[in-house]
Amino acid sequence: MRAVVLHEHGGPEVLSLEEVDDPVSGPDQILVDVEHTALNRADTLQRQGGYPDPRRPAVEIPGLEFAGRVAALGAEVTEWQVGDRVMGIESGGCYAERVVTHARQALPVPSTVELADAAAIAEVFLTAWDALVVQGGLTSGRWALVHAGASGVGTAAIQIAKAIGARIAVTCSVGKADACRALGADLVLERSPANWLAALRNELPGGVDVILDVVGGDEADRNLHAVAMDGAIVQVGLMGGGSAPVNMGLLLMKRVTWIGTTLRARPLERKLALCQRFISEIIPLFESGALRPVIDSRFAIDDIADAHRYMESNANVGKILIDL
Q: How does strand 319-323 pair with strand 29-38?
């Protein structure tokens, strides 16, 4: 099969499209013919050597999500049939024509979604829902704040918040504000050089109940000022840096719950439980039309380096998809 392989780490030019051996499914796994995958910030970090596949495979193939059709079943698999449309997340290996995944980690493609668009769902909607709702406790009538509102996770978070009856504020660059409003964001705050914290306090002096932060860095201290009493901050990424001075007194005074989380390195049992709950609670919202994938652009797998360059330009609103 063809796959994007990393022999070294560096810029987009190190991404090499090569022929490699097909993966083989185990008894509780399925083999998927991958038709589409997508870019994530983790992919660019892995390419640079900063976020390795926790499985440490012999051949390093990036890519965290896939959409395709079941090609083969492990001996113990009963919930899928060959030819079924599936999507899902993996710790790596999805920049390839085939991937294996645990049968209970695979997700059914909603009937309302084209297979070509399904690769825009798993990573960002799982991340946003897990952070805001499962861990952050967001419920109807409460306020969320999400940084990078026009990103893949951000566009998913806006939709999830509105679907459950919550209200949501987002930060983004001024050129992406209208896109966030169109998705349903209740309050759109311009990030640097504007003072989003002052604007938030003017609108919501009591703060927000849950913050989803993919930025870190200097936003960490601002988050402590923005969160409400007994609120939660869920740290999902560190695009702005992993170290920053913060006012620890606010953490205590406000009784803040500060959660650090990633999906990639979780134990398999926890991933399976999350995916099964996602099937029950979130897939029906795609079927009803309450949620939809937000796609910025598409690249062919042969143009994977250009896709990485585009992601690193920060120009996208929603997902960047790769067609195999």
A: antiparallel
